Amino acid sequence: MLQVADLVCGYGDITAVHGISLTLGQGETMALVGPNGAGKTSFLMALAGHIQPQSGTITLDGETINTLAAAQRCMRGIGLVPEGRRIFPDLTVMENLVVGGYSRPRSEQTLNLDHVYDIFPRLHDRQKQLAGSLSGGEQQMLAFGRAMMARPRLMLVDELSLGLMPRVVDECYAALDKLVAAGIAVILVDQNSDAALAFCSSALILESGHMTWSGLAANAPESLTH
Ligand code: ATP
């Protein structure tokens, strides 16, 4: 489904990612592991279309999407749960979700909302509440739900457990499990590399923007992941 070949990206003169290549099939899961500043977020941003590649190619279902804007990539099935959640604090839970489904036909809205509420019943309970008043865990669920509203086939999740209590982290992983069971592929970044490696079938390790290892998550060398 996704093929990335020798992707280089960054910010102006700064190169943050020096040549990442990977392939990911439908419903597959990949952990992206590396220390702070390794380029994990930059890579996800390049996949989602928020920063443009300097070179290399991103191919989704056989189509090169390098030059497509973020909104068009969203319409083609790439969803993003960004680092720090970036929910809209002054909108209600439901309004945040509706914004996430903007690219889909209006006729699907109720169905998509129900699907999100099925996976995150707490969002249903809080649907009229301002998103800024939710707990950190609920905000993470909302960020997930908002991305799900666009019916993604590939979900990019940045820093899943950042700042969350262990119980809430478990809930978020359980939700991610449901998405994978529904055939959605996931690329996951989590500061808790053990959790990310345990969840995902494959892994890619980055250091200073360079890919230092890739393979089955179960075989990831501990010396590179801690
Ligand atoms: P972290 O775990 O700290 O989020 P990361 O692995 O996600 O780290 P990135 O955030 O992608 O790494 O950062 C990779 C490099 O790009 C770093 O050197 C960082 O300073 C630089 N960088 C990130 N964002 C920007 C930006 N907006 N402008 C310029 N440089 C940036």
Question: Could you walk me through the main structural features you see in this protein, from its secondary elements to its overall organization?
Answer:
By secondary structure, the chain is of the alpha/beta class. The chain has a single domain (2-216), classed as P-loop containing nucleotide triphosphate hydrolases (Rossmann fold), CATH 3.40.50.300. The chain is built from 9 helices and 10 strands. The protein has helices at 40-48, 70-75, 93-100, 109-119, 121-125, 136-148, 166-181, 193-199, 222-225, and strands at 2-11, 14-24, 29-33, 53-60, 63-64, 78-81, 154-158, 185-189, 202-207, 210-216. A hairpin with a 2-residue loop joins strand 4 and strand 5 (63-64). The structure holds adenosine-5'-triphosphate. Adenosine-5'-triphosphate is lined by residues 11, 14, 16, 34, 36-42.
Task: Quickly list its features.
binds adenosine-5'-triphosphate; 4-stranded antiparallel sheet; alpha/beta; globular; Rossmann fold; 226 residues
Provide a quick synopsis of the model.
With 226 residues, the chain is of the alpha/beta class.
